[in-house]
Fold:
Amino acid sequence: MSNSRFEERAKKYFGLEVTDRDRAIFEGAITLGAIYHQFVGTPVSRDAGVVSDLERAIEKTMALQPYIESVKVKIDTSDIGEGTHPYDYSEVSGRNLSVELVSRYGKARVHMGMKFVAELDFPLMFIERIEEED
Amino acid sequence: MSNSRFEERAKKYFGLEVTDRDRAIFEGAITLGAIYHQFVGTPVSRDAGVVSDLERAIEKTMALQPYIESVKVKIDTSDIGEGTHPYDYSEVSGRNLSVELVSRYGKARVHMGMKFVAELDFPLMFIERIEEED
Amino acid sequence: MSNSRFEERAKKYFGLEVTDRDRAIFEGAITLGAIYHQFVGTPVSRDAGVVSDLERAIEKTMALQPYIESVKVKIDTSDIGEGTHPYDYSEVSGRNLSVELVSRYGKARVHMGMKFVAELDFPLMFIERIEEED
Amino acid sequence: MSNSRFEERAKKYFGLEVTDRDRAIFEGAITLGAIYHQFVGTPVSRDAGVVSDLERAIEKTMALQPYIESVKVKIDTSDIGEGTHPYDYSEVSGRNLSVELVSRYGKARVHMGMKFVAELDFPLMFIERIEEED
Structure:
């Protein structure tokens, strides 16, 4: 099925009032929620090779989701131990995971992200900027 | 910290162009993505008690996410075996999970959902309706 | 397929040296790892109803796994905020999740569990006791 | 804390009857269950680069778990569409995921794995071989 045929069929399930802007926000936010709940709990260490492989894998797999233009993932491992014994590793969590994501649908492009915000003691997801072409 | 103090702080991380409608879509869609990627893979059987307990647990825990007004979850177990041997059970998947969710932020309320759509062979997430108060 | 027919077929994939004791440990440990990595990240609050519904759902769904005789789950919510604003909730993590599980295969029954151990700063999984019938 | 100091403390939580063989099976099986329930649901496509990056990331992160000597992961993407439209991708599931894992504790080394077994219609986890030094 071609891209346009497929999208035509999918669109029937959306309300008529849904704009390109609404849809771009929707698709990007799904992927933010997906990243967090898919990967939280994954073991990580201070080993730069392990961490960067995981960051790339998250970016590439989650960019497959519909209407995602780019995904950038950073896992901060500065609080993790040196790996001196078998239990000395940590895991992906809301405290060490940050994401920048761009979604695009039709004439709208949305920049969004997540990061741990100390003043809120919360891994906040937020919309940074919305671009709409005329 | 009071609700309004907290939201005031969170709001600084959002672009100024972000409307109540944008935000309600954003928060609801995060939770749709979260439900799928948190619970896919959970064992389920035809036992109605097991399934309804899981449905209620998903609804109640995911309704804790910010600005979610209601969550309704249904797991279709009609394709699952009778449980006649130790491996005769199944799991939550895009084929048997459906969700209806209402998010609300300020003057906007958004009805969204997910269900498996046979003609697309895909567990589609969609925005059903957007309500905005004057 | 009957239980015994099915198990006969499954057994071909196991080494001949694998005993009932080995197998009971194996099946129970799979489920411990499964519980942690399936449910870590699930939102929870201090609301006793939400927490006990989630505990029961984890117990009932994970008891479906092969050769699991019982599962008991406790999520400690004493460190979670009062829920005074939309971001004032927490999630299932290695620090608040504890599990007691009994697996049984043939003549062996194994009691195992997981809990956060402060002196190790780690959510330790452990075998408490192994029973073997003559 | 040194490796031996740490393990000494951890060992107190295990029954005295637990042998090296028991423990090696236990630690390996936890990781099999963890891999399945952590990564099932992750988006994948036929793109060989995406898939091999994810396979490597799973291998490297899950090898961090205690007493895991090696992990080999294969995700079969032959059933996935060509990616001709935004919804034309798939996800990690029990049908396409296979794992080979070696755990080692003291004098015991255990070879185990998981793969989808058609005759059982189930993603079976199994112990292939147990080696014990004198």
